[in-house]
Amino acid sequence: MTVLEVSGVSKRFGGVVALAGVDVTIKSDEILGIIGPNGSGKTTLFNAVCGVHRPDGGRVRWNGVDITGKPAFEIGRMGIGRTFQQAMSFPSLSVRENIQIAMEHGSHRRDGATWRWSSAEELLQFVGLEEFADESANAMPFGNLRRLGIAVALGGGPSQLLLDEPAAGLNEAESVELIQLFRRIHQLGVGVCVIDHHVQMMAELCRHLIVLHFGNKIADGPTETVVRDAKVIEVYLGAQS
Amino acid sequence: MTAVVVVAVLALPWFNPGYRALSFGITTGFTAIVLYGMAVPFGQAGIMSLGYAGLMGFGAYTAAILSRDFGMNMWQAMPFSALVAALFAGLFGLPSLRISGHHFAITTYVMCELLRITLTNGGKFTGAATGLDLPPIGAAFGVNLDQVKNTYLLVAVFMLASMLATYLIANSKYGRTLRSIRENEQLARSVGVNTNMHKVLAFMLSGLFAGIGGDLQAYNFRHISPDLYGGAISLYFALMVMLGGPRTLFGPLAGAFIVTFLPEAMKIDPVDSRIAYGVALIAVIMLLPGGIIGVTERGYQWLVEAVRGAPRGASPPEANSSKA
Fold first, then answer.
1. Where are the alpha helices (DSSP H) in B184-222?
2. From B130-134, B141-145, B308-312, the region with the lowest mean pLDDT
3. What pLDDT, in 10s, does the model give residues A119-146?
4. Residue A179: what pLDDT?
């Protein structure tokens, strides 16, 4: 089991406090969901963990090792994979090449361990994109692009995945397929942490939820407790109705 | 196709094209060497630098100074020229870690100008505005390399070697790493690509080409001066690469050939030709983003598919797709 420990991490952009000292513990034996309204600091939290932004305060520990402020590529190699809100890919390269880049640079090369997928084709099969291997990434429909983003992150050989709104822009059926994919990834022993707005989907996928609001953690616990929490309903669930 | 071009390049002297055409061919050759280097960071990693005239200058001045002070010939100076140019290429590339696009291009342009000013005011060491002289290339294996036909072949062999080197880089794992930087730097970092290191490495690699090109140029001209290595010359290099197509096998050669020969062939006044270049550059950027060779390749592929009636399948691989 791997543990990603975020303690007291804060980040401000000018006068805006994006994270006001947040504590989060992500264990690989559970699928963790992080919810919260827009601007509550969810993506900033991921960026602070992954080395995109250097936290102003607090520490990030990965299996006990302090990784606060390390460059993004090193964190990627250490086994923390991520996807992006905007469904990123290497657009004009083929789907296969997208995966190959990740596989050639990921953490599995560092530890010398053999990774679960010996080739890009096998990994593409796992996420269900094998028939698109020779297409260029930007020629694929949006739903597939989301899957490709996940496959690229997996190609790096992570032991923890951080997924930033992976279902944004997808329809009901595609979201359901995605949930199944996350479960299969988790069964491989990879930690899965998901950010999303989709409360229903998150309640179904995660047994553990964390709620952020204006850069503060306002709830952290089993899903059934969190969704009944009066404060959560007020700031987030209530705001939607 | 590749074979046809190689044979055509090497066989040219036997068609007796005359001294003038051959010396233009030599100029095309060492220019193309620099352009093949430039095609690595620009074509693969997607970073446009306007520093290449300057880097060529480092190669040329290294050759001239080593010849004057240590009596080295062209061959002995070549590794030093390549290394010095590579070192400065890395230095010129450093701003790319912080800035990109036009901002980086302008920064490198300024670096070229700084070099030109430094060379002009370098006193006896750099020969100031007059520049430096070099001895003839001499002979190798009993062949007089100063005869224009032989010089042409010498430069042609180096040009073909640099074409091959760029092709191998583009089609290696390393080429793929560089393309990941071009396509999406943030994503590349997240999967473990050390983008900063690879950017500088790509520039240093291209600097080797520029240094060798500069060494060959210096020994062909036998006199070099600061004006050869200013920012304006770099702009011509950029035009050539974009005109030909930086991601194609023949693009840099085609670009160097067109820009070197065309004004001569069409008897265009130098000032007019500069205007023509400006117009050509804008036209290429707007109409032919893959360069002349890139568009030709795509047209050819489209034609083949149309004739075969095959369903439109995958898009062709991006880098150096000509595999004739």
1. 185-190, 195-221
2. B308-312
3. 899 999 999 999 999 999 999 999 999 9
4. 92
Query: Nearest residue on chain B to A103, judged by CA atoms?
Result: B191
pLDDT for the residue numbered B269: 77
pTM: 0.89
- Across residues B302-314, what is the average pLDDT? 70
Is residue A92 less than 8 Å (CB to CB) from chain B?
Answer: yes
Which of B177, B181, B190 to mutate to test binding with chain A, by most A CBs within 10 Å of its CB? B190
Asked if B44 is an interface residue toward chain A (Cβ–Cβ < 8 A), one would say: no
Distance CA A232, CA A225 (A): 10
Both tokens of B233, joined, read: 């010359």
The CA distance from B149 to B229, in Å, is 26
Residue burial A137-162, b: 16+ Cβ < 10 Å; e: rest: beebeebbbbbbbbbbbbbbbbbbbb
A79–B contact, CB cutoff 8 A: no
Q: Where are the alpha helices (DSSP H) in A72-222?
A: 72-77, 95-105, 107-111, 120-127, 142-155, 172-187, 199-205
Per the document, the length of chain A is 241
**How remote is the C-alpha of B232 from its chain's centroid?**
15
Q: Between A93, A94, A101, which is nearest B191 by CB?
A: A101
For residue B161, what are the CA distances in angstroms to B33, B106, B255, B258, B318?
9, 30, 17, 20, 22
Other C-beta atoms closer than 10 Å to the C-beta of A207 total 13
Local confidence band at B318 (pLDDT 50, 70, 90 cut-offs): very low
Q: Which of residues 178-197 of A touch B (CB under 8 A)?
A: none
How many residues are listed for chain B in this entry? 324
| Partner residue facing A73 (CB), from B195, B313, B315 | B195
pLDDT at B320 over 50: no
Integer Cα distance of B252 and B37 in angstroms: 9
**Nearest CA-CA distance, residue A126 and chain B, Å:** 18
The per-residue pLDDT for range A10-60, each reduced to its tens digit, is 999 988 999 999 999 999 889 999 998 888 899 999 999 999 999 999 999
Region of residue B245 (left: phi > 0; alpha: psi -120 to 50; beta: else): left
B86-138 pLDDT per residue, tens: 999 999 999 999 998 889 999 999 999 999 999 999 888 988 888 899 998 88
The per-residue pLDDT for A157 is 87
**Number of alpha helices (DSSP H) and beta strands (DSSP E) in chain A:** 11, 10
A-chain residues near B192 (CB < 8 A)? 73-74, 76-77, 102, 105-107, 109, 156
Residue A168 neighbours by CB under 8 Å, 6+ apart:
A85, A196, A197
What gap in Å lies between CA B104 and CA A187, rounded to an integer?
A: 46
Nearest to A135 among B177, B180, B314 (CB): B314
β-pairing, A31-35 vs A208-213, is parallel
